[in-house]
From TrEMBL:
A GO cellular component entry from the record: plasma membrane
Keyword hit for Repeat: no
Name of the molecule in the record: Iron complex transport system permease protein
Similarity-based family: Belongs to the binding-protein-dependent transport system permease family. FecCD subfamily.
GO MF entries: transmembrane transporter activity
Keyword tags: Cell membrane, Membrane, Transmembrane, Transmembrane helix, Transport
């Protein structure tokens, strides 16, 4: 994937290496913090002793059976949402395009809630439902961008997405009224969390995420060409319609997998590309590369905060990502100018 996304002209940029290395180092620190800190009685020193094979059985169990799985799931969720946000923004030429804001995550969430209500019990069925819902939501986003004047106005597109998100959330609430047993499960899942999720859920989404990474490697160069305009992309031998279809399918795979793993998390697909683009510039290939460490770092960092803010209880991960992302959205809108894509 690295070679496909970053030809010599991309990787050779000296200015790009420091932020990439810094993001990788930050990710390592956040992973360590995730293993050391939690809302339970096992302290950071106890967890460190367990990692050094000198701790108690309780600390070893907490670190390896509770914190390690949620760390891995948070990493994959952040990777998927960060890449999906970058792809969606580049495809729509809209820096405010984000799966959570445009209804893609809400569509995925509604599909999962419907699957739970119908009795879906396996991670594979849940993942498939989430991806189909994300595909429907992503298709509606693309249709919206083709409406004259809407796709060129970032704020109006977000308002249209917010309307669709509100409708889907209302429909999800209606589903919760139909079955109390399913309602309890849906209510816990829809707030967004990686706590208590078994690694078996990750295995169910891994094939989809792997396929999505392969597709990203295929569309990265044509997507960079499309930034010059569709006519220029066609002149370079690319097919914009085919590329948009592949990106739509890729975003559905990524958002569906992330939603199945952690529930609908908003603003992650906005914050991660925004941070990455601040250091990488408008080149989508550099942005995608930088999203690889930044996305997991943002989601995992938010998960660590969710454990510490309200300890010994935990705040829902979806609430923390909203608290982080809302100021970023307001800052972009109030700036009066949109970053160029």
């Amino acid at each position: 994937m690295l070679n496909a996304l970053s030809p010599t002209s991309v990787v050779a940029s000296r200015a790009f290496f420091p932020p990439l290395l810094a993001a990788g180092f930050l990710l390592l620190l956040v992973v360590l913090a995730s293993l050391l800190y939690g809302a339970g009685p096992v302290s950071a020193s106890d967890a460190m002793a367990a990692l050094m094979a000198n701790g108690t059985e309780e600390a070893w169990f907490v670190v390896t059976e509770l914190r390690l799985p949620r760390t891995i799931i948070a990493l994959i969720t952040g990777l998927a949402l960060g890449l999906a946000g970058a792809l969606l923004q580049s495809m729509t030429r809209n820096p405010l395009a984000e799966p959570g804001l445009l209804g893609v995550s809400a569509g995925s969430g509604f599909a999962v809630a419907l699957a739970i209500l119908l009795g879906a019990t396996t991670a594979t069925l849940t993942t498939l439902a989430a991806q189909l819902g994300a595909l429907a939501g992503c298709t509606l986003v693309i249709a919206a961008t083709r409406v004259q004047g809407l796709g060129n106005d970032p704020v109006r597109l977000v308002l249209a997405g917010a309307t669709m998100t509100g409708l889907l959330l209302a429909l999800t609430s209606m589903l919760m009224l139909m079955d109390q047993r399913a309602a309890d499960e849906i209510r816990f899942w829809i707030t967004g969390s990686v706590a208590g999720k078994p690694l078996s859920m990750l295995w169910a989404t891994l094939p989809s995420i792997t396929l999505a990474l392969v597709l990203i490697a295929i569309v990265a160069r044509p997507l960079a060409a499309m930034a010059l305009g569709e006519k220029a992309a066609v002149g370079l031998g690319h097919h914009p319609g085919r590329i948009r279809f592949l990106i739509t399918f890729t975003v559905a795979l990524l958002v569906g997998s992330a939603t199945a793993l952690a529930g609908p998390l908003i603003f992650v697909g906005l914050v991660v590309p925004f941070i990455a683009r601040a250091f990488s510039g408008p080149d989508i290939r550099k942005t995608l590369l930088l999203c690889v460490p930044v996305g997991p770092a943002v989601v995992l960092g938010a998960d660590v905060l969710s454990r510490l803010i309200a300890a010994p209880a935990e705040m829902p991960l979806g609430v923390v990502t909203a608290l982080i992302g809302a100021p970023v959205l307001l800052a972009i809108v109030r700036a009066g100018r949109m970053p160029s894509l």
